[in-house]
Design a protein that fits this description.
single chain; mainly alpha; 15 helices; about 85% helix; globular
């Protein structure tokens, strides 16, 4: 997996370099210079959509949980998934660990993150469907209509299968039994898998709360829609304003491309190619698309690096406390 991620990163960087060279770095810098320091405002503007996402996660966590700590954990999860070569899943594993360290039962912490991941997939499907409708309304392209509808239809069975397996498949119990067969009854594997039946039960308990799931979905959907303001404002500041429907189409379909080609760390090259394609469909040039991508990456780095530093601080503090406890 690490080798595949490295190869994907090299290929993605190659695509990105070729796209920048094709349009010329000077042309892209001219577009960026129109916005100047205003692009730095994208960093704090990312907090409200993430906070809405956190409120959705909080609905799924049994017991009391401080919004401030959940927000910190959410920023760490996002930074790990966006900035590190972990195939968009490493952040969830760290999130479970950090939530358990705050006093939440480990099984329930894992269940909340797993069910939130399922809700995220549903939210992304709805978000992409809205983006497709906006794009087709703006472009009136029949050919584009057929391809996008085919992509949406093809994802429905996979999404339905994932939901069915989580709800009825007892998949973690099966993983536990498989690990025992492969490694022996006394396996020293992850505690999550050694308590697979408890994890399946906790997930089914969350599934039974339909109102809770609906509230979590509502918070997440509000968050991703509010997040479109980043694209809407960035393009306005770059001197190429678009309507909010166009911004929604750009944001949703760019996210879909990054999630689809998840093996590429940070979606390097994927995001740039996707934005260029959408830019051509919506009437702005490649240099503007790449400038928009660079502005987004700037925001990801400036928002994510402090989160990664906070993660290391939390882990380091826990290690020091553990050493003091063992010496005492």
């Amino acid at each position: 997996m690490k080798a595949a991620a490295r190869i994907a990163l090299i290929l993605g960087l190659g695509v990105m370099i070729v796209l920048i060279a094709r349009d010329g770095a000077q042309s892209i810098m001219r577009v960026l210079s129109q916005a100047g320091w205003l692009l730095l405002l994208l960093v704090p503007l990312h907090a409200p959509p993430l906070l809405l996402d956190v409120m959705g996660w909080r609905v799924l966590i049994a017991g009391r949980s401080r919004v401030s700590m959940l927000f910190l954990i959410a920023t760490i999860r996002e930074a790990i998934n966006r900035l590190l070569p972990v195939a968009n899943v490493g952040g969830e594993i760290v999130g479970i660990r950090l939530l358990a360290q705050q006093g939440t039962d480990g099984t329930r912490a894992a269940a909340s993150v797993i069910v939130e991941l399922m809700i995220t997939l549903i939210t992304q499907f709805i978000f992409v469907a809205l983006g497709v409708m906006c794009l087709l309304e703006l472009t009136q392209s029949i050919r584009l209509w057929s391809w996008l509808l085919f992509g949406l239809a093809a994802s429905v069975p996979l999404l339905a299968l994932f939901i069915a397996l989580l709800r009825n498949g007892s998949i973690f119990s099966r993983f536990e039994r498989l690990a025992e067969r492969l490694l022996g009854a006394n396996t020293q594997g992850s505690s999550v898998f050694r308590r697979g039946a408890d994890l399946d039960a906790a997930i089914r308990e969350l599934f039974a709360g339909h109102g809770r799931l609906a509230r979590a979905l509502g918070w997440q959907l509000a968050g991703v829609i509010l997040g479109c303001a980043e694209t809407w404002l960035a393009l306005r500041w770059l001197g190429h304003p678009v309507g909010f429907a166009a911004a929604l189409a750009i944001e949703s379909l760019t996210q879909a491309a990054r999630h689809f080609v998840f093996i590429v760390p940070a979606g390097v090259g994927v995001q740039e190619a996707g934005l260029i394609a959408l830019g051509h469909a919506l009437g702005f040039d490649s240099d503007v698309a790449i400038a928009l991508s660079l502005a987004k990456r700037m925001r990801e780095i400036l928002f994510g690096l402090p989160a990664l530093a906070a993660w290391q601080w939390l882990e380091g503090r826990r290690g020091i406390l553990g050493m003091r406890g063992s010496s005492g």
